[in-house]
Each structure stands twice: as structure tokens, then as C-alpha cells.
Task: inverse folding
């Protein structure tokens, strides 16, 4: 999978992609990440990428020309399955969406700033709008990092044990069951006996019931869905 990210603050994306699972994915050649600095397409000697909004009001808007030129430059080199704009009013990211997007070959992500991007780009160029939650960030870079992480770990070969991702929360519409590791007892707190029994069928049954119980207690809305 290749992901191109358009940003006016590319430095914000340096650390998230240079460690842990995403680093391994890149080293294995399974995830090809590139960050495009929008200011390279800025206007004038100051490389301007934002301007005042028509109609007045507080806050700047990312200009249409630099962003359109950046998008066009990338599209000249390859076709994109989706051109995604990270925005608070987009479709809410969930595991089902992450699963579907992880099957794509080429994605472009646009990181918004200020009051966002010129609406005409959303109407005529962007193919999908995604939000990571009902709150506002200073820019779309952190949201892009979240999306890339959610997708990257699903690419076959990225995780050492691919079955691990299949048992994550939300994969089956519920929260994952409780997990424990050594020691079997700590400060008098014990691991459930069934998990120490070695009886695989009974362990799986316990995990299924525990997942339902945890979901009912913490996220009952998932069971309704």
C-alpha cells in the first residue's frame, strides 16, 4: 500500500511513522509512506497557502490553488483509490472502515488547518471525508497518523502474528475480552483459573462470554448495533 499525505506541517508526521509497527511495515516494503509539503506549491515569494474567508469571520482558509496543484502533481504519477480529507465533520472512522481501506493500493490524505480547505475542493476533488472523533484538532496531521496506524497494522505481513489483528476490539462488533500475563498471582490478584487450564474450547468460550460482558458494561451501544 502507498499513502501520500499533503500537509503544511510535515514535521508533525516524522515521529509517528519512524517507530514500532509502522516502521517495520515500511522496512518490509509493505507500506510506502510519503509526505508532500504543501508550501512547495504555495503562492508568491512567501509560499502563501491560506487566505481570509469570503464573507468575513475569524479564521483563515486553505487556498484552492496550492492544494489543487499539489493534488494534481501527485495524480500525474499514479491513480488513487481514494482522496481523503481529514475533517471533524467527516464520516466517523471505525474498524469496519479501516478494514475496507486497508485493502486499497493507493490513498491520498489531505490534512486540513485553520478553518479547513476551500469548499470547492471538497465538492469536486475529494472522494471521501473522514473524522477520528467529534472534536477539533489544530490540524489534520494527528488524524492522518491515526488513520495510517489503523490501516498499516492490517496489511498482511505487517504484524508478526496476523491473527492478532483479528481478535482486536471492534473486529467482530464487540470489545475484546480481558487479557492477562505472568505472574498468575500478584498482590493476591489472580488470573482466572480457566485461562490456566489449557482447555482451548473452554478458554474460547470464556473469552466469548467475557467479550459480551465487557461490551455490555462499557459500550452497550455496540450490542444494539
Result:
Amino acid at each position: 500500500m502507498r499513502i501520500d499525505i499533503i500537509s503544511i506541517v510535515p514535521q508533525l508526521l516524522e515521529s509517528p511513522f519512524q517507530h514500532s509497527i509502522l516502521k517495520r511495515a515500511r522496512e518490509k516494503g509493505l507500506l510506502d509512506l510519503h509526505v508532500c509539503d504543501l508550501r512547495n506549491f504555495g503562492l508568491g515569494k512567501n509560499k502563501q497557502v491560506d487566505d481570509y474567508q469570503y464573507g468575513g469571520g475569524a479564521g483563515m482558509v486553505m487556498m484552492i490553488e496550492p492544494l489543487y496543484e499539489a493534488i494534481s502533481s501527485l495524480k500525474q504519477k499514479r491513480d488513487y483509490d481514494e482522496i481523503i480529507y481529514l475533517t471533524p465533520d467527516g464520516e466517523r472512522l471505525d474498524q469496519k472502515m479501516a478494514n475496507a481501506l486497508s485493502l486499497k493500493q493507493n490513498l491520498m490524505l489531505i490534512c486540513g488547518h485553520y478553518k479547513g480547505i476551500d469548499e470547492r475542493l471538497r465538492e469536486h476533488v475529494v472522494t471521501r471525508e473522514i473524522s477520528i472523533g467529534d472534536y477539533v484538532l489544530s490540524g489534520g496531521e494527528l488524524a492522518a497518523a491515526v488513520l495510517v496506524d489503523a490501516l498499516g497494522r492490517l496489511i498482511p505481513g505487517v504484524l508478526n502474528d496476523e491473527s492478532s489483528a483479528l481478535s482486536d476490539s471492534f473486529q467482530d462488533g464487540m470489545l475484546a475480552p480481558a487479557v492477562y500475563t505472568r505472574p498468575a498471582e500478584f498482590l493476591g490478584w489472580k488470573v482466572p483459573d480457566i485461562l490456566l487450564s489449557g482447555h482451548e474450547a473452554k478458554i474460547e468460550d470464556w473469552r466469548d462470554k467475557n467479550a459480551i460482558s465487557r461490551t455490555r458494561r462499557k459500550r452497550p451501544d455496540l450490542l444494539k448495533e
Summary: The two ends are 31 Å apart (CA to CA). The first strand starts at residue 2 and ends at 7. The chain has a mean pLDDT of 94. Helices lie at 20-27, 64-75, 95-101, 119-124, 141-152, 163-166, 200-218, 220-224.
